[in-house]
Amino acid sequence: MTDTFAAVWHYLADSTLFWLGLTLLVYLGAATVYQRSGGNPLLLPVLTAVVVVVGVLYYTKTPYQVYAERTWFLKFLIGPATVALAIPLYGQLARLKRLFWPIFVALLAGSATAILSAIGIARFVGASVQTQLSLAPKSATMPIAMEVAALSGGLPSLTTIAVAITGIAGAIMAGGLFKLVRVQDPEVEGFALGLSAHAIGTARAFQSNDTAGAFAALGMGLNGIATAILVPLILAVLAII
Length: 241
Fold this sequence. Notes:
The chain is mainly α. It folds into 2 domains: 3-78, no CATH class; 86-237, no CATH class. It is 82% helix and 0% strand. The protein is globular, with a radius of gyration of 19 Å.
C-alpha cells in the first residue's frame, strides 16, 4: 500500500459506516448476480457475499474482531428480523393447524437425524468428544446452537462454523434433492429448508414464495427448540456426557 492509500484505508477501517455499507453493497451485488443467473445454487448470495467480504479482510489484513465490532448493528437486526418472521407465519395459521401431526413427526425425525448424524460421522472419523459436542446442534439457528454447545461442553466457535456450513450447504443442495425425490409442495420444501438449514435455508425459501418462507420460519424455530431439548437427551443416552 502507498502511504496515501494506507492513510485513507486506516481512516475507513475505523469507520462503522464503511463496513456496514460495504457489507450491504456486497450482499446486494451478490443477490443481483444470483437473480440474473436464474437462481444458480452455487451463486447463493450468502456464500458469494461471505467470500468477497473475507477476501477484503484478508487483502487489507483487517482482523475479524475489527469487522465484527464495526458491524454490530447487523447482529442487532437479527432479533427484529426473527420476530418479523411471525407475520407470514400467521398468514399460514389455518394450514399449520391442519398439518400439525405431519409437522410434529417431521420435526422429531429431522432434528434427531441431524444430531445423530453429526455425532456419528464425527465419531467415525475419530473426532474428539468435544468436537462431537460442538457439531451436535449444527442444524439449529446460530444463537441456540452456540448456547447448546457451550452448555454441553462443546466449542461455540467451532459450532458457529458448523452452523454456517450447514446452512449454506443445505440451501445449495436443497433444489437438487427436492427434484430427486419429486417434492413440489412449498409447505414441505419450506419446512425442510428451515429445519435443516436454519436462517440461510429460510432466506432461500422466501426467494421461492411466501408459503415456503413461512413454513421455513416455522421449521427453523421449532428445530431450535427441539435441538435444545434433544441434544442433552441424546448425549445422555449415548453416554457422551
